[in-house]
Design the sequence.
C-alpha cells in the first residue's frame, strides 16, 4: 500500500452547537493530486485549517506524513506549504520582500526566492509592491510562498477562486506539474468539480461537514454511465433477445434503451445479436455529466 | 526561532510609519518644552536658577507617561495591523514556527522601538537644554537617561496588555480606544493610589521605592505576557 501523506480519523469541529466538520476520514497518498470538493460552507476551509494546525479539532486525530499533528507540528509544517483561501501578503512590500519575510522564518537559501518566482512566472513583476498586483498575480505569489520551503505536501484552498479563465488555466497547469516535476503531493479544494476533474487523480466530496464520496476520478466517472442505446436493424426481435439475456430495457424511437451493465455483458449481447443476423449500427453509452453526478451527491448527500 | 520571526518582523514594518511615530513622540515632547521655555525664557530660567536642568526635566517629566502610553498603544496597534490587514496570520502561523516565538518577537520588537523612543527623548532633551544655554558640565546624564527608560520599565504591564489586545482582536478600535483612555486617565495619575499601574511610571522616576516600582512593572509585565501567550497559543486562527 502506498504511503498516506494525510490521514484523518473521525475528525470533528464544532462551533457553539453547529458542527462544521463531522466524522471526517481523509486519506491522501503520496504523489496524488487530491481534489477536495464541496459547496461553499461545506467545511473545506475548516478542514484545511485543522490540517495546518490553525484551529484545534474538537475531536479526532490528524496524521501528516504518518506523524501526529499535535505532537510533531513543527516537523510537519516544515514539510508543508499552504495557501488558505484568498492569499495573504503584505501589500506595501514587493514580491521579493514578501517572500523574504517568509524565508527569514523558514530558513533556506536566498536563491530559492528567484526560483519560486520563476516557477509562477512573476520574475518580471518581482520588484513592484504587491498591492498593485492583479488577483491572479497575488494568487500566484501565494503559491510561490507555499513552494518556498521546498514542501513535500502542498495544501491549496480554492486557489482559483475569483480568477478569470486564463488565470484558472495557468494555476491548473502549475498544480498539475507539481507531482510530476517536483514529487509534491497536492491537496486542492474547490467548489467546482469541472475544475478539479482536470487535475486531480482522486476526489473527496464533502457536504455539510461529512464526506459523501472519496475515490478516484475514474471511479466517479464510471458511476456516470446510466445505460446503453443500441441501434439495430430489427429492434423488436433484438429487444426480445436482450431480455432473454437478462438485460433490463425498453424500446424507444426504434432504438433499444438498456440499463447500465458490465462490459462483458454488453459484449455478449452484441455477439448474440450478430450471430442472429441482426445488423448492429451503433452501441452508445449514455452518460450523465460529472456535474450532474456532483450535484446529485452534493444535493442529496446520498452515496453513489 | 524568536530571532527569525523578529528578523521577518523588521522587514514587515518597513514604510508603515512606525519609526516616524517612534521619533515624533520624543522630539515632539522636547519641542513642546522648547516652546514653553522659549516663550517664558526669562521667567523660567529665573525660577529654576538654582538648577535649570532639573527644572527642564521636571517640565518634561509630566508628559512622559501619557506619551509612553499613547506610544505603546499606537506602536502595538500599527504592528498588529500589518498582520491583521490582509489576514496574514493564517499564512504566518502555518509556517514552521511556534506561536510563542511569533508572540515574543512582536513583544521584543515593540519594546525595542520604544527603547529607541526613550533614547531619543534623552538626546533631544539634552540638546534642548544646551540650546537653552544650560551648562554642558552640569548636565545630569543619569536623570536624562532615567526620564525615559525607567518609566518605560514601569510601563511594561501596559505594553504587554496592549500587545495582547492588538494581536488577538482584529478590530483595532477596541485596543486603541482602551489605550487612549488609559493615556488620558494617566494625566491624573498622581492622585491615584500607589497600586495603580498607571501611576507607576512617575513613581519609578520620582520615588519613593523606585527599585520596587520597577520590579513591580517587570513582574506584572511578565505575568501579562505569559497570560497573553497562553491565550495566543490556543486561539483558533480564522
Sequence:
Amino acid at each position: 500500500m502506498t504511503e498516506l501523506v494525510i490521514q484523518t480519523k473521525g475528525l470533528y469541529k464544532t462551533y457553539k452547537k453547529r458542527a462544521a466538520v463531522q466524522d471526517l476520514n481523509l486519506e491522501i497518498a503520496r504523489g496524488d493530486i487530491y481534489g477536495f470538493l464541496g459547496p461553499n460552507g461545506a467545511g473545506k476551509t475548516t478542514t484545511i485549517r485543522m490540517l495546518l494546525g490553525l484551529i484545534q479539532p474538537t475531536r479526532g486525530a490528524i496524521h501528516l506524513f504518518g506523524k501526529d499533528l499535535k505532537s510533531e507540528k513543527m516537523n510537519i509544517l516544515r514539510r508543508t506549504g499552504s495557501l488558505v483561501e484568498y492569499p495573504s501578503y503584505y501589500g506595501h512590500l514587493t514580491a521579493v520582500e514578501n517572500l523574504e519575510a517568509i524565508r527569514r522564518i523558514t530558513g533556506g537559501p536566498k536563491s530559492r526566492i528567484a526560483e519560486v518566482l520563476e516557477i509562477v512566472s512573476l520574475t518580471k513583476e518581482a520588484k513592484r509592491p504587491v498591492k498593485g498586483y492583479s488577483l491572479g498575480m497575488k494568487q500566484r505569489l501565494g503559491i510561490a510562498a507555499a513552494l518556498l520551503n521546498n514542501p513535500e505536501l502542498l495544501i491549496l484552498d480554492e486557489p482559483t477562486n475569483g480568477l478569470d479563465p486564463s488565470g484558472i488555466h495557468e494555476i491548473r497547469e502549475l498544480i498539475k506539474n507539481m507531482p510530476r516535476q517536483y514529487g509534491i503531493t497536492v491537496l486542492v479544494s474547490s467548489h467546482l468539480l469541472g475544475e478539479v476533474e482536470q487535475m486531480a487523480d482522486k476526489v473527496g466530496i464533502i457536504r455539510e461537514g461529512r464526506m459523501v464520496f472519496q475515490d478516484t476520478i475514474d471511479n466517479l466517472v464510471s458511476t456516470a454511465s446510466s445505460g446503453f442505446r443500441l441501434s439495430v436493424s430489427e429492434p423488436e426481435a433484438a429487444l426480445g433477445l436482450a431480455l432473454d439475456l437478462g438485460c433490463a430495457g425498453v424500446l424507444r424511437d426504434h432504438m433499444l434503451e438498456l440499463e447500465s451493465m458490465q462490459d462483458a455483458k454488453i459484449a455478449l449481447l452484441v455477439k448474440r445479436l450478430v450471430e442472429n443476423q441482426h445488423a448492429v449500427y451503433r452501441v452508445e453509452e449514455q452518460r450523465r455529466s460529472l456535474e450532474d453526478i456532483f450535484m446529485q451527491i452534493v444535493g442529496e448527500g446520498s452515496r453513489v | 526561532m524568536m530571532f527569525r520571526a523578529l528578523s521577518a518582523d523588521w522587514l514587515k514594518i518597513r514604510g508603515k510609519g512606525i519609526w516616524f511615530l517612534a521619533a515624533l513622540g520624543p522630539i515632539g515632547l522636547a519641542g513642546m518644552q522648547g516652546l514653553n521655555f522659549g516663550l517664558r525664557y526669562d521667567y523660567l530660567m529665573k525660577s529654576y536658577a538654582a538648577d535649570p536642568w532639573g527644572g527642564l526635566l521636571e517640565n518634561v517629566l509630566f508628559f512622559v507617561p501619557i506619551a509612553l502610553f499613547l506610544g505603546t498603544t499606537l506602536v502595538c496597534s500599527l504592528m498588529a495591523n500589518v498582520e491583521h490587514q490582509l489576514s496574514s496570520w493564517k499564512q504566518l502561523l502555518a509556517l514552521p514556527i511556534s506561536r510563542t516565538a511569533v508572540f515574543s518577537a512582536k513583544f521584543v520588537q515593540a519594546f525595542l522601538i520604544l527603547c529607541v523612543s526613550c533614547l531619543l527623548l534623552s538626546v533631544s532633551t539634552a540638546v534642548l537644554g544646551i540650546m537653552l544655554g544650560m551648562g554642558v558640565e552640569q548636565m545630569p546624564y543619569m536623570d536624562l537617561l532615567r526620564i525615559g527608560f525607567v518609566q518605560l520599565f514601569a510601563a511594561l504591564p501596559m505594553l504587554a496588555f496592549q500587545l495582547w489586545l492588538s494581536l488577538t482582536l482584529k478590530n483595532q478600535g477596541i485596543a486603541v480606544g482602551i489605550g487612549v483612555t488609559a493615556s488620558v486617565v494617566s494625566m491624573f495619575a498622581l492622585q491615584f493610589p500607589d497600586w495603580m499601574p498607571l501611576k507607576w511610571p512617575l513613581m519609578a522616576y520620582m520615588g519613593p521605592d523606585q527599585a520596587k516600582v520597577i520590579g513591580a512593572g517587570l513582574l506584572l509585565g511578565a505575568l501579562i505576557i505569559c497570560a497573553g501567550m497562553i491565550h495566543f497559543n490556543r486561539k483558533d486562527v480564522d
Summary: DSSP finds twelve helices and no strands in chain B.
